[in-house]
Structure formats: C-alpha cells, structure tokens
C-alpha cells in the first residue's frame, strides 16, 4: 500500500532531489524544515553508491521493492515463502545524543563578494539537515547557539517536536556580536554530562589556541567532536582584485592593501590556519571538514556519517 | 655625447609621464568587509617588500623607455666621434682627410664642441722641385703629412688668392713673398675679421703689400715688456725648450711639454732679436689681426720653418690671430686648426643623416622596455603560487 503524502511539498521525486545538496539550489527553498528535508532526501537519493548505505541498524518494517532499491536489502526468505519482493528497512539506534553547535558570531553573516549564501545560512541549513537526518533515525538531537557565549541551548530529545524546536531556533538565529567560540564550547562542555556527539558549525575565526583548548575540554568530557569549518570562497582564496580596504566586521580593524599583491601570502596564512585546526582536531580523535558556502551539503553529511559510524 | 637634434631633448620632460601614469592610474581603494582580514594584515607585511620593488622596477622601465625613445629621436653620438661629427657639421671635410694633429699637452682641455679653425696655406715660395719648403713644413704642422713627400693639395697658389677663396677661411698662412692683387685680397680678409700669419721665408722683397700692412708701426713699437727676446742664434734654444725630447722629434707627431705662448699685441713687436730688430710683429687691421715673422730686409728666420720646432711657433701664431669670435676659453685655437684645400672653405653642408639602423636599434630597445613594462604591469611576470 502506497501511503499518500501529507503535503504536496513532501512528495519528493527522488530523481530530482539530489540537486538539493547543492547550496545554490537549496537556497531557493525558504522554509528551513523543507530545506532540511530536501537536503537529506537528496543526499539519500545520491547515496546508492556510498559506503555509508544502510547506516540504520535496527529492523523497522518491510516494504515493497521498487526499482532502484539495493538488491542486497531484499529479504529472500520472504520471497521464497510469498514469491514477492520485500525490502527490509531499519531504524536507527536511539542511544546517540548529538548536539548541533552553530556559531552565530558577526563574521558568520559574511556572504562573499557576490552576495550569495551567508555562512550562517549555510550553517543553519546544514544543521537543519543534520537534525532532520538524526531525528529520522530516532537519535536524540540537541542544539547550542554560540555567539558571545552559549546563547541558546536545547537539550537533546528524539522526538518530532524536538526537530520543530530546533528548526525554529535555527530559523531565528541572527548573527551579531564578537566571536566567543571558546567560551561557548566550554559552557557546552560544562553543561552536557552525558557523552554525545558534538557537531560544531563555525568559521572558527577566533583565537585558535583557545578554541582548540575548548575542544579538548569537550573531548576530555568524553564527547566526540565533528567540526565543519565554513568559510566563504572569497575568504579562502581572497577572490578580490586591485586596491582594497579590508575591514574586519568584528574588530573593525581595516587593512589597506592590493589584493593581487598579497594573495599568495594570504593563501599561505589561511591554509596554515585551516591546516592547524584539521591537524589538531584529528589528533584529538575528532573529525574535521573544511568547506566553503558552495560546497555541496552531502560532503558534510558524509563526514558526519563517517564519524557517527565510528560509534557503533 | 652630443646630439644631432638637441632640441628634441626637451622631450625628456616626458619622463614625468610615468609618474603621472602612476598617479592617475591609482585606483580608488574600495572598502570590502572580510572576516579574515587579520590574515591579510599578516600577508601585507611579507608582500610589501616585493610589491615595492616591483613598482620601482616598473617605474624605472617606463622611465627608461621614454628616455630611450627621446634619445633615439635626438640622434646621440658618443665619445670622440661625437666631437668630430659636430665639427664636420660646421665645416665640410677636406679633400685630404686630415690625420690626427700633434697631441698638445693642452689638448685634453679642448671643448669638443669648439668650432674648427679653417686654415688656408698660401704657397708663394719658390718651387724647387724635390726640396721641402717652408710651406710644406708649415702645412705639416697642421695636416701631419710628411714634409719630405708633400702632397701639396692643400696649398693655394698666391696668384690665385682672391675674395672667393678666402670667403669661408678663418686664418691664412702665407708662405713666401706676396703678389699685389692677392695681398689686397688678404688685407680685406683681415679687415673683415680674418687672421693672417705671414712667413716670408726665403727672400722677401723689402717693399710688398703685406709689408705695408704690417710694418707701419714697427719702428715706433713699444718694447715688449712681456715678450720674448732672442739673439739671432738663441731663439732656437727658446723654442727647443718646449719639446720633451730636446731638438729631436717627429714633425708630424711632436710631443710637447709646454706650449709656447706669445703675446701678440696690436702694432707691437712680439719677439725681438738681440740686436733690436723685430723677429715677430703683429698688428690689428680692421676686425682682424695679422702677424709676420722675420719681417725686414736682410733678416730671415733661416731654416727655422723647416725644423720640427717650428710647429710650436706655428700653432702659437695661429692662435694669436684667430678671429675673436672663435676664441673659446679653455681651448687652443691652434689645436682646432685644420688646413683646408683651396675652395673647400664653404658653408657647412647638412649633417649626414644618421644611419637608419641606429634609430631602429634605439627604438627597438625602447619597444622592448615598453613590452616589459606592460608585461610587468599586467602581472604576467609576477610569480603567483
């Protein structure tokens, strides 16, 4: 029996949803809940060749086989008895507490030189998608909004209402204030007693040593850490030219220079900055993914699933 | 270095163009919000040196390109060749190419741009075939040819001397007795501002037009207080003292240790023999000046004019009579003297055109610089990682 979709928008054509992992496409969807759904559905649609297929572990139900399903998921015993093809579906374990930690400092409002998706929009969309994915797997999901500290915190729950609350918080998240990422992470570490998976979405434009120290604090508390460093392509590669006055949105400091002249030295410094985070986070057993606001969302989701799989 | 077209050098004012290009080409910096500006600040310190050097090189190349283009159009000439070319623009080259003149000690003080003194040797002496004469030696003092085998192409017969021949001549060296028509032309030549050196040499008649020109005041001339007094046999020692190697030396390339300076005052005896008779007298006539050696009946310089030492005296005399307008401070008129063949003292011909290859080479160099500048400016030569 085919269940009729509750909303027209919820009826997803799996052949076209894969495009929603592209930030430019996902940006056209205004509602965050739909955006999260489309991203996840698009991700799953493109996951057939992925090694992370079948990440849910517990059997949930049978359903009719439809072309495109993996033959490995067919239950041959049922086929032998009924001469009909059924596919086993699984549901996720529910013992995972995942925390989505979203940086909302002023630097996250940067949208690049072409006025595309801001880093915060990218982070909230990715966080919503992760929340949707986790909720779908019956995982408990919590949320932390990091600004000048831990500004908002939702304890983890594995309910649909929790996803609604998370999406509402993410939709209302506004960037502003100076980055106090380390203070926010320390606050999370102090607040969360039970071991969980900390997913940080930030540009990490803070004092690296302080941030890394806060991450070590989380690790010390037994948490697993997944860091998505989100930068704009203009930040990563200094996609500017000619004489410019570069203004730091948080400190207000200005640097007058020629973008073409410093591009090489700038790239060296930014790569060293990113490389240091990657090296240190991996050394502490965490997962790190550097991405820009044009990186497809499935790239982040794959990293997340890789880290989640380590726990089982 | 001299230039065929010095006025084009005013184009060097175009050197300001690169500066203006730099100033006008400066783009107004736009303000860009960039959260990672802290990394730009660090990169700025490391990139500043290279950027400054690149700008300096760019400015230098642009300036060099403009300067090369202007210099190419101005027609530069280098070293000794430039001085010779400049002289050739004033006087046409003689039929006989003048060899290098005797290297006077003071030659180095000569200003390359000083005007060439055109000397015409008038040969009125008796022609004894195969025997060197005073005119040959006198011409050799300036031409450098071998007096023993003179070509005599640069001699003007006394009978042919006229206004046309003297038109573009500065100094006349008259050797031997004069002829009345020619002497009249010589007198008018002096009155117009020319210089005349008369070397009677051999036997000179007591009464001559040139004698009239020069001897009028000799009898009442003042004693040369700062002049040179010679005895009939002693004047040689005075002149010989001017030579490095005593009386020896090559007439064509004598080496002097000092230049003999004679004070040639108008209407006065410059040099007097010990017996009181004048040895060299000078006189101002009109706008010019004339000087004569051994003037007077019964008095002769003997064989002096046929000796290497005479070169010193000849140079000094030419300098003494050179037209006032051609006297350049710090230069030796005699050193600039060039014997011209009769009829060669004509107005200067246009300067020969510079070979086109020179201009092309200069412009090509300027073009290369321009290409380098543009490559550098467009960043194609910059190293990017």
Describe what you observe in this structure.
The complex is a heterodimer of chains A (312) and B (385). Chain A contains 10 helices and 10 strands. By secondary structure, chain A is of the alpha/beta class. Chain A has 2 domains: 34 residues, no CATH class; 214 residues, Rossmann fold, CATH 3.40.50.410. In chain A, the strands form 3 sheets. In chain A, strands 5-4-3-6-7-10 form a 6-stranded mixed sheet, with helices on both faces. In chain A, strands 1-2 form a two-stranded antiparallel sheet. Chain A has a two-stranded antiparallel ribbon with strand order 8-9. In chain A, helix 2 crosses helix 4, helix 4 packs antiparallel against helix 5 and helix 6 packs parallel to helix 7. The N terminus of chain A is likely disordered. Chain B has 385 residues and is α/β, with parallel strands linked by helices. Chain B folds into 2 domains: 98 residues, no CATH class; 246 residues, Rossmann fold (3-Layer(aba) Sandwich), CATH 3.40.50. In chain B, helix 5 links the parallel strand 6 and strand 7. Classes of the chains: A alpha/beta (312), B alpha/beta (385). Chains A and B meet through strand 8, strand 9 and helix 9 of A and strand 2 and helix 2 of B. Strand 8 of chain A pairs parallel with strand 2 of chain B.
Overview features:
heterodimer, A: 312 residues, alpha/beta, Rossmann fold, six-stranded mixed sheet, two-stranded antiparallel ribbon, 21% strand, globular, disordered N terminus, B: 385 residues, nine-stranded mixed sheet, two-stranded antiparallel sheet, 9 helices, 12 strands, disordered C terminus
Fold topology:
The complex is a heterodimer of chains A (312) and B (385).
Chain A: H1 23-26, H2 32-45, E1 58-64, H3 76-82, E2 86-91, E3 97-103, H4 119-136, E4 140-146, E5 150-157, H5 160-172, H6 181-191, E6 197-202, H7 208-220, E7 224-231, H8 233-237, E8 243-247, E9 254-258, H9 259-283, E10 287-292, H10 297-310
Parallel strand pairs in A: 3-4, 3-6, 6-7, 7-10
Antiparallel strand pairs in A: 1-2, 4-5, 8-9
Chain B: E1 2-3, H1 16-24, E2 30-33, H2 37-74, E3 76-77, H3 79-90, E4 117-123, H4 134-143, E5 155-157, E6 171-175, H5 180-191, E7 195-199, H6 209-215, E8 228-230, H7 235-240, E9 268-273, E10 278-285, E11 288-293, H8 310-321, E12 337-339, H9 356-377
Parallel strand pairs in B: 4-5, 4-6, 4-12, 6-7, 7-11, 8-9
Antiparallel strand pairs in B: 1-3, 9-10, 10-11
Helix pairs in contact in B: 1-2, 2-9, 4-8
């Amino acid at each position: 029996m085919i269940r009729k979709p509750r909303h027209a928008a919820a009826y997803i054509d799996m052949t076209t949803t894969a495009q929603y992992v592209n930030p430019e496409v996902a940006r056209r969807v205004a509602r965050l809940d739909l955006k999260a759904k489309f991203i996840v559905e698009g991700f799953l649609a493109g996951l057939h060749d992925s090694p992370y297929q079948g990440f849910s572990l517990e059997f949930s139900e049978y359903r009719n086989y439809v072309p495109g399903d993996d033959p490995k998921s067919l239950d041959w015993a049922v086929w032998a008895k009924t001469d009909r093809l059924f596919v086993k579906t699984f549901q996720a374990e529910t013992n995972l507490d995942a925390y989505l930690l979203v940086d909302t400092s002023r630097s996250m409002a940067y949208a690049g030189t072409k006025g595309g998706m801001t880093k915060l929009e990218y982070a909230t969309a990715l966080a919503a998608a992760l929340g949707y994915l986790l909720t779908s797997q019956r995982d408990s999901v919590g949320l932390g909004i990091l600004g000048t500290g831990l500004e908002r915190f939702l304890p983890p729950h594995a309910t649909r209402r929790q996803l609604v609350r998370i999406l509402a918080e993410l939709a209302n998240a506004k960037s502003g204030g100076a980055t106090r990422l380390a203070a926010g992470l320390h606050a999370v570490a102090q607040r969360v007693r039970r071991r969980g998976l900390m997913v940080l979405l930030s540009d990490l434009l803070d004092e690296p040593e302080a941030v890394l120290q806060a991450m070590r604090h989380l690790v010390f508390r037994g948490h697993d850490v997944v860091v998505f460093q989100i930068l704009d392509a203009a930040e990563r590669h200094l996609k500017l030219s000619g004489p410019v006055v570069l203004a730091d949105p948080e400190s207000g400091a200005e640097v007058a220079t020629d973008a073409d002249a410093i591009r090489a030295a700038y790239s060296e410094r930014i790569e060293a900055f990113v490389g240091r985070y990657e090296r240190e986070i991996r050394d502490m057993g965490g997962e790190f993914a550097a991405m820009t606001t044009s990186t497809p969302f499935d790239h982040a989701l794959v990293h997340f699933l890789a880290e989640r799989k380590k726990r089982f | 270095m001299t230039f065929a077209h010095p006025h084009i050098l005013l184009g060097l004012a175009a050197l300001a163009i690169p500066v203006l290009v730099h100033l006008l080409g400066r783009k107004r910096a736009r303000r860009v919000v960039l959260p990672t500006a802290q990394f730009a600040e660090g990169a700025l310190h490391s990139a500043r040196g290279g950027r400054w050097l690149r700008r300096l090189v760019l400015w230098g190349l642009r300036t060099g390109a403009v300067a090369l283009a202007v210099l190419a159009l101005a027609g530069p000439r280098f070293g000794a060749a430039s001085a010779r070319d400049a002289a050739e623009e004033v006087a046409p080259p003689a039929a006989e190419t003048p060899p290098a003149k005797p290297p006077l000690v003071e030659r180095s003080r000569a200003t390359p741009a000083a005007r060439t003194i055109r000397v015409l040797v008038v040969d009125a002496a008796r022609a004894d075939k195969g025997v060197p004469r005073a005119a040959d030696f006198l011409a050799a003092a300036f031409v450098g040819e071998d007096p023993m085998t003179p070509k005599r192409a640069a001699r003007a017969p006394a009978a042919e001397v006229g206004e046309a021949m003297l038109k573009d001549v500065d100094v006349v060296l008259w050797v031997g007795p004069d002829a009345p028509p020619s002497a009249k032309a010589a007198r008018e030549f002096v009155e117009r501002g020319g210089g005349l050196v008369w070397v009677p040499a051999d036997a000179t008649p007591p009464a001559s037009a040139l004698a009239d020109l020069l001897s009028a005041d000799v009898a009442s001339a003042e004693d040369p207080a700062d002049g040179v007094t010679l005895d009939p046999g002693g004047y040689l020692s005075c002149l010989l003292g001017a030579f490095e190697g005593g009386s020896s030396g090559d007439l064509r390339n004598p080496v002097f240790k000092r230049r003999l300076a004679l004070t040639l005052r108008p209407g006065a005896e410059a040099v007097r023999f010990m017996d009181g008779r004048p040895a060299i007298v000078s006189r101002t006539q009109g706008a010019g000046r004339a000087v004569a050696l051994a003037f007077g009946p019964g008095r002769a310089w003997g064989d002096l004019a046929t000796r290497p030492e005479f070169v010193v005296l000849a140079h000094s005399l030419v300098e003494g009579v050179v037209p006032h307008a051609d006297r350049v401070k710090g230069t030796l008129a005699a050193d600039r003297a060039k014997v011209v063949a009769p009829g060669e003292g004509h107005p200067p011909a246009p300067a020969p055109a510079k070979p086109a290859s020179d201009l092309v080479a200069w412009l090509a160099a300027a073009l290369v610089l321009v290409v380098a500048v543009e490559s550098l400016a467009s960043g194609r030569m910059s190293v990017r990682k």
